[in-house]
Task: structure prediction
Amino acid sequence: AQSVSQHNHHVILSEAASLELGCNYSYGGTVNLFWYVQYPGQHLQLLLKYFSGDPLVKGIKGFEAEFIKSKFSFNLRKPSVQWSDTAEYFCAAATGTASKLTFGTGTRLQVTL
Amino acid sequence: GAGVSQSPSNKVTEKGKDVELRCDPISGHTALYWYRQSLGQGLEFLIYFQGNSAPDKSGLPSDRFSAERTGGSVSTLTIQRTQQEDSAVYLCASSLGLPGLDGETQYFGPGTRLLVL
Result:
């Protein structure tokens, strides 16, 4: 069965530090990949997604992610985090015919001043 | 237009009681999903509706869980004879198309936090 793994459960960074959150998926066929973010007290919202084309995807608030098919990875990056990036980040995948998203367990990011 | 709305926002119930959770999707979205988010867990898929097609119920954890979608819009998730392990946040999402086939974004509601005592 398809699965998504996020190995970083809790990350603490100082403002201006660089961020990379890992995401690996298990499916070998066509796959669409998503990063969702949940800010404290808010609902899940899309950060960015890969559907096709350029494997380097840019999203909102300066985030980007790179789809590396050979590594089954879709890591999220940001060169300089801000305190307002404190949130929980979820990676998700959907296969070519899937009607649902398979989510990772999430990474809680805490940015300190 | 308005986003996905869910009600109630919080629900506390006693073990053994039935509960109903409601979801209003974004107008025009044909696909509607229910997920469950337990403490420390990711989102667990429960059920999916698409237009007039038969729903995908493959994620429902037991026959105590059921859902319906009336008129292709509002959906209700019902949990019968609730158990303490049902305590979680129940999230609804809607989309124009499928995340796998079309790469469509799912838009999530704020969730219903269910606590079974």
